[in-house]
Write a sequence for this structure.
């Protein structure tokens, strides 16, 4: 029986009752079709795993097919397979040389243009002739609080060597950036698998792994910045203090922030929330605002200190709030407070008797001084 027909029959579940010889049973798998009109996938000689550099991987397609492949390095980002191109080798057998970690994919291309399914293998390439470089317990070039413990760890079986420069004044960093420039530097060999230090300033390190049986790893440079906590910026103060009750028609409030900052504030009319005002930033650390009883009887004032000059302090303080209200007075309260020496006038300047005042706003003049009152 024809070998290809036998293979196809078996593939689709048909087992023919025929007499075959031992020679007939040695079916060439490279000639087996995966499905009607489709070639079988190629065979990759090495399964996924870890290998030395320059390891040869043999890719073999069926004898009448051609190998196509693509290799995507682990360094490809962010979507490596979207950009990797297939390479048509033009041969049924191809040897690929591993030189970096990544994924090898292969497929068979038939003479009729059909393609097989894609097969793949994932390889990690390690140079066992020298040690891998140490790793850090925190992210390189990160910023961390004073006293943060940072651990440098070499691969299992190796030790950490390092040199370190610590800057507490914003300079530093004398360590060279390339391996060839380290001839004049004395590395400290810890003879330990890991080394831990506490951050006392911005620290510049260069480290490598060393040990028996392999050569030293590449030097790895790192910088760990020490973050300095900002001083707290005091909140603004109010005068009069929160809770004050005004008895006139207007109330004046002074907001003061620390020297070197400016005041930012917002006024909320609790009787008319639609009149919610946007925040205002003053030009100095003192701002004076006037509240009107004609627009509302209850106000909330919110304020912040804004720092734009001193880098030691936070850029903005927490919010401070103050609540102010207006009180109306009765005719009896007016008489008791001002007595008989006061004169009362309407807003138009007409003098009136305090004992017959109707609800409204009046001007009171006493001892040469005038003020507004709101009568209920």
């Amino acid at each position: 029986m024809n070998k290809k027909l036998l293979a196809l029959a078996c593939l689709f579940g048909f087992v023919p009752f025929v007499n075959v010889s031992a020679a007939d049973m040695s079916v060439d798998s490279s000639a087996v079709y995966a499905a009607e009109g489709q070639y079988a996938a190629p065979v990759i000689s090495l399964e996924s795993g870890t290998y030395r550099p320059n390891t040869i991987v043999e890719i073999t397609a069926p004898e009448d097919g051609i190998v196509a492949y693509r290799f995507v390095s682990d360094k490809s980002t962010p979507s490596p397979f979207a950009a990797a191109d297939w390479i048509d080798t033009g041969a049924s057998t191809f040897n690929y040389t591993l030189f970096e970690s990544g994924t090898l994919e292969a497929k068979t291309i038939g003479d009729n243009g059909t393609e097989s399914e894609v097969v793949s293998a994932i390889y990690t390439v390690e140079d066992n002739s020298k040690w891998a470089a140490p790793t850090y317990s925190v992210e390189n070039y990160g910023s961390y609080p004073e006293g943060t413990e940072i651990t440098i760890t070499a691969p299992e079986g190796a030790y950490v060597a390092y040199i370190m420069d610590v800057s507490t004044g914003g300079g530093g960093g004398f360590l060279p950036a390339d391996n060839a420039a380290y001839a004049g530097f004395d590395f400290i060999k810890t003879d330990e698998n890991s080394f831990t230090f506490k951050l006392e300033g911005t620290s510049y390190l260069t480290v490598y792994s060393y040990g028996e049986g392999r050569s030293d790893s590449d030097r790895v440079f790192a910088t760990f910045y020490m973050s300095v906590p900002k001083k707290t910026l005091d909140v603004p103060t109010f005068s009069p203090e929160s809770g004050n009750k005004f008895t006139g028609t207007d109330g004046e409030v002074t907001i003061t922030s620390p020297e070197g900052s400016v005041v930012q504030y917002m006024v909320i009319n609790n009787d008319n929330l639609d009149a919610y005002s946007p925040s205002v930033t003053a030009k100095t650390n003192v701002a004076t605002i006037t509240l009107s009883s004609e627009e509302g009887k209850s106000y909330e004032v919110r304020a912040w200190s804004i720092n734009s000059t001193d880098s030691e302090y936070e850029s903005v303080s927490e919010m401070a709030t103050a609540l102010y209200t207006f009180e109306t007075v009765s005719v009896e309260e007016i008489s008791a407070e001002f007595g008989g020496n006061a004169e009362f006038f309407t807003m138009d300047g007409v003098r009136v008797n305090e004992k017959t005042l109707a609800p409204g706003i009046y001007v009171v003049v006493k001892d040469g001084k005038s003020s507004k009152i709101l009568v209920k």
